Amino acid sequence: MMRENWTDASLMRQLLMWSLGALVMVWACFVFLAYRTGVEEADELTDGHLASVAVLLLGIRGLPATDQSTELLRLREERLKNHDYQQSLSVLVWDAKGQLRWRSGEAPTLAFDGAAEGYATVLAGDENMAWRSFSQWNRERTQKVAVMLRLGERDALAHDIAGQMIEPGLWLLPVVSLALGLAISRGLRPLLELSSEVAALDVQSAEKRIARRPLREFDSVVSSINALLDRQQQVLERERQLANEIAHELRTPLASIVLQTQALEAAQDVGAQAPVLQQIRTDTLRAAHVLDQLLALARSSRGHSRSGWEKINLAQLARNVAAEYGQAAWERNDSIEVHAVDSVLLFAQPVLLEMALRNLVENALKHTPPGTRIVIGCAEDLVPARGAAWLQVCDDGAREGMSVQAPLADSLHLGHEIVARVAAEHGAKFWKSPCVAPFTTCYRIDFAAVPERPAG
Questions:
Q1: Chain centroid offset of residue 91 CA
Q2: Residue 384, pLDDT score
Q3: Which residues of 114-148 are buried (b: 16+ CB within 10 A; e: fewer)?
Q4: Which helix (H) or strand (E) holds 375?
């Protein structure tokens, strides 16, 4: 098994990174909102505390005269622990004439303002320190109370409350990240198992198949892989059969060449050597033709590039091929004709298409008796459902009472395999079509309706 490189693309790593990124963003938003909420709650808590103390003091009648005490309003018992949220409050009490009657805490004395009430943030003292205050008159307006707190102490409380709200998030982030990584790893386990099964597939073995996965999301993937395996097995089986046929076709002429060469070496009469040499020539041409067909088959298998596509005249292509084989047909007393309109335009690969047409014509010449009539036909298809155009080669070589000569070249199947692959490259259908008298054999290519310039 290949060692995984951290730089290689990984679905699990990508999911984990995106999930952790989303988690960090959500966590950052949570921290920001928690901090703001903590600050706002601390401000409200402090303001409420100031107002509560002021209202409480306003309910006490007959406050003692001011003694300018600066004692902080905190617990003094050593056995009692001051609470974190207990704040150092300062209190100022004025009478109706604006005289300071009572003072407690470390806050500086504020200038009396009989009209001011409620919350305020003031700067006071020699150091010009910021204070948060709440002031209010009693109902009879005989005394006014102001409760004060240093703004820095209130901000410290706000940060403490905000930190208490943020701290659980700081602890939960690594825990949630670890749990998320484990969950993603566990959730992707079926995919990893499927990947392992695909990696272990042996395309040469017809029995190796992927079992159906329990998750329906994998059904289409597994079905596609199994269908691909089935097609691969069919292709391999067809290639094996083709290889056996080719080996048989080559073995026969090569064995004959060896035997004829031995006979030629043993022959003393010059006259007896002539037929032996002719047989050697025939077998050599037969082997060479089989090799040519193999090269054509390999060429058709490599014809998947769209760069060679162009608009061609199918009728003119048929006329050119018929003209080239006119001499061979005349030598066999055959006739070769073209039945087509002036122009049948089609986007195709002309080299491959000409090769396929040549194979059909050669098969008609080599696998039929002398005197055969061969007709090449092509036209635009008048039935849109069947395609854009068609090309066919028909002959009457299987007439009753006429014997067919033994083939001098490769089997008929090899030539048809070449034509079938060329047709598949053009998205066309190659088949043996019904014949109309007097013809006995027709092989046809139906071209599908393709765009003007196929994508590639």
A1: 71
A2: 57
A3: eeeeeeeebebeeeeeebbbbbbbbeeeebbbbbb
A4: strand 373-380
